[in-house]
Amino acid sequence: MHCPFCRNPDSRVIDSRTSDDGLSIRRRRQCPKCGGRFSTSETASLNVIKRSGVVEPFSRDKVVAGVRKACQGRPVTDPDLAMLAQTVEETIRQTGTSQINANEIGLSILQPLRELDEVAYLRFASVYQAFESLEDFESAIAALRAGTA
Q1: What cofactor does this protein call for (predicted)?
Q2: Is the pTM above the cut of 0.90?
Q3: Burial grade of 79 (CB within 10 A; 0-12, 13-18, 19 or more)
């Protein structure tokens, strides 16, 4: 880690603390050259494997953007979407894997979205569960009514 003050390539960790959510570590560092102190944050990397085979870092913003389309015109707020994205990330991280397929992220969105808004859930599910007919929608609605979706 380069010192942000003098660009020295070395620094010494003087304190480490786990964040409140337990997903990152905050480290206080000191530069041995200029004595400047600064903080860094470390998180375990989580990568997404796209359908094309390209690997990119997981982004909560992309989860929110994808779900926002399904929630268009629904009574869902930005804080609701941010909380949903956090829930999805926590669920994925609990699997213990560092790489996940993009389709699995879409599928992991379904349950929290169902709890948030059933209409948005149906819209989103129609894409990620590849609905092909009205019967697919009817069976999804029947499962929602029965509480088994």
Answers
A1: Zn(2+)
A2: no
A3: exposed
